[in-house]
Amino acid sequence: MKRVNGPDYDVIIVGGGMVGACLAHALCPVGLSVCLVEAVPPKADHQPSFDDRSLALSISSRQILTALGLWDDVVTAATPIQRIHVSDQHRPGMVRLTAREMGVEALGHVLSARHLGRALLKNLQQSVQAFICPAGVVAIDNRADSVTVTIAADSGEQVLNSRLLVLADGSRSRTREMCHFERIDKAYGQTAIVSNVLTELSHQNTAFERFTAHGPLALLPAGPDRMAMVFTVNSADAQVYLDMNDDAFVAEVQRQFGRRLGRLHSPGKRSSYEIALQHVKHQYRDRALLLGNSAHTLHPNAAQGFNLALRDVAGLAEVLAAAAVAGADPGGLATLQRYNDLRRSDQQRVLRFTDGLARLFYTTNPCLTVARNSGLLLAGLAPALRRRIMRLGAGLGARLHRVPG
Ligand SMILES: Cc1cc2nc3c(=O)[nH]c(=O)nc-3n(C[C@H](O)[C@H](O)[C@H](O)COP(=O)(O)OP(=O)(O)OC[C@H]3O[C@@H](n4cnc5c(N)ncnc54)[C@H](O)[C@@H]3O)c2cc1C
After folding, report:
1. pTM over 0.85
2. How far apart are CA 71 and CA 105, in angstroms?
3. In whole angstroms, what is the distance from residue 181 CA to residue 236 CA?
4. Which of 153, 211, 275, 320 has the highest count of CB atoms within 10 angstroms of its CB?
5. What is the pLDDT of residues 147-191, one digit of tens each?
6. Nearest CA among 209, 236, 292, 242 for reference residue 23
7. What is the CATH class of 3-79+108-185+276-393?
8. 188-275: what fold?
């Protein structure tokens, strides 16, 4: 195979999914030379990041996407969330949150990953020095003053040098293993089944999260009369739900959800995702930094994964912009430590929140069951507690980073 030495970059990003592509946009005004390497062409049916799943975007994500100049491209495809309704099947207690109570225009927005992908890819070629796709990483050589990445592309192998290597190639990141990051895994034994459904009654821009014996069932407003669905089930039962005909599947969802939205009907295509918690002991070493799902893959119960990663993107862009102004090394230890210090507490807080929620709602432990029910009741009754939960979900608990512009 032909092998050539490519140019040198300040930053190489491996993985041009939601998170890697957002970082490429965020670094555009910083003045660093950026190369983005992505394995799967954007328009391929099997592009794993920009699929049909619906994302609940928090208020902080909207602010960041606006600062990146991307919000105008997605706003018409995004459905605002005016109310959130959280309940527990067969048990008392519920929480209702409203945009009015929070004094905001919307509590968040629902947007399909596919729409986000289109907006991200539209101007990507202009944002980066090189977008190499399809290409995979064959070898990584971390040195004291640079990192060398060998990639295999259609044209042959290329050897690229960079001062910083950002690994944003998802939860099954191969480059994370190549760089010897220590991973911590926790299997939940659950699978998320994603689909959508039409409703007899108007959803009135309400996002529903219902905790059932199987796991959470989320119905998110996605367009005027459609709800996007994330139905979490025990992995052992997942295939049964995937194999059911549409009528049987929608009847099962109706049984779990109840009749708040009248009759549910006309379900869309189903796809499934194995759920696990994954994180790392250290998110940087030897000029390599993990970002997005490769750094932390969370339970989707609170719709936090991408929202958190987007705040990481904003934080990293802020740190790299400051390093560029100071003439500091973007992959140097001091720069990566600064990023770590800036982001660690938000990451840990969200990880604890989603993992705690997962444990609280799938327990048979009577003490935890009482805690859960009284928690929902208390939050239902106490506006201050409700607002705290809301601020956390909206991504407003942490300091918002200054996205370079
Ligand atoms: C069912 C479900 C619902 C969710 N809902 C929400 C939600 O409502 N809100 C929210 O905030 N988050 C949500 N999430 C989480 C969100 O999907 C993730 O946070 C997000 O996908 C992470 O993006 P990423 O770019 O890090 O990884 P990915 O989306 O996995 O992208 C990785 C990219 O890297 C590429 N790649 C892989 N290997 C290589 C390689 N060797 N070389 C080059 N490229 C490579 C892949 O092709 C891909 O494009 C949900 C997740 C699930 C499973």
Report:
1. yes
2. 15
3. 30
4. 320
5. 999 999 998 999 999 999 999 999 999 999 999 999 999 999 999
6. 292
7. alpha beta
8. D-Amino Acid Oxidase; Chain A, domain 2 (3.30.9)
